[in-house]
Amino acid sequence: MIMETSENLKNLVKEKYSEIALQSKVQNESSCCGIGGCATVDYTIFSENYAGKEGYHADADLGLGCGLPTEFAQIKSGDTVVDLGSGAGNDCFVARAITGVSGKVIGIDFTDVMIEKARENAEKLGLNNVEFRQGDIEKIPMTANKADVVISNCVLNLVPDKQKAFSEIYRILKPGGHFSISDVVLTGGLPANIQKAAEMYAGCVSGAVQKDDYLEIIKTSGFVNITIQKEKQIELPDDILSNYINKDQINEYRDSQAGIFSITVYGDKPEDCCGPDCCK
Asked: pLDDT, tens digit, for every residue of 181-217?
């Protein structure tokens, strides 16, 4: 039953993001990650401004992120970088500007149409050390211990089995490698009607878990030096909330400790790792 639910979720993500791949950034920003359809959304509360970043390519920016992981990922020249949920290639191209010609960037995405779009963008840019592979983040199509850095931008919240996803990140990283991932998490007991409003307001809130649970998943996957590099609370506008709850309930929510946050989190795979995923 759980597997069936997970497969249904994956199929929904694939269907929706296939549609998103064919939309413009402007369309996506005005339709809640391309999913919800709420035209009053001010998407800037989620997205970060990539303009001016070296390697930025406007055609690859679909406006779907909730952070800027490349800014915090400590990528070095010559690194092998893997971007999970690479979309049209935006973060991959920014990462490639840092790794340079001696490095390699691999984008993994679940959606065939996104992969096609990203490959077209890479060809336009003439980049021969950026590649894109179709694959499931719960079963990343790479052998173990290959990546120096893993990045991801507002994608893991959509993955049904987050423990499996972080175990896979651990597997593909070299000992001493690290990740920097931007994602959406929750704090406190978010009422069901607020959760519904949030998901209507931004499809990227769907699948988000409690921040403490998210960090615990990372820890139990074997990572150390886990650090939140950036954190930003997502404010739901009153005009959106008023579609679901009354004014008193809005005030109660504002006064509570519950909230929706965009976080960028970092973790290291230990240097001395010698478990089954380290010494292959």
From this structure: 999 998 987 777 776 666 655 555 667 889 999 999 9
79 closest CA partner among 163, 155, 204, 177: 177
| CA gyration radius, the chain | 18
Pick from 112, 209, 129: nearest CA to 162: 209
Instruction: Please state, in angstroms and rounded to a whole number, the distance separating the CA atoms of residues 190 and 112.
Output: 34
- Phi, psi for residue 85 in degrees, rounded to 5: 75, 55
Q: What is the torsional sign of CA 216, 218, 223, 226?
A: negative
b/e 67-90 (16+ beta carbons within 10 angstroms → b): bbbbbbbebeeebbbbbbbbbbbb
**Which residue in 90, 153, 138 sits closest to 118, CA to CA?**
90
Cα separation, 49 vs 38, whole angstroms: 21
pLDDT given at position 201: 53
Lowest pLDDT segment from 151-155, 236-240, 251-255, 264-268 = 236-240
Q: What is the pTM of this model?
A: 0.82
CA torsion 34-12-132-124 (nearest 10°) is -30
Burial of 91 (0-12, 13-18, 19+ CB in 10 A): buried
Q: What are the structural domains, with CATH classification, of the chain?
A: 2-268 (3.40.50.150)
Sheet with 173-187, strands from edge to edge, namely 130-134, 104-109, 80-84, 147-153, 173-187, 259-268, 224-234
Give the position of tokens 């990462």: 95
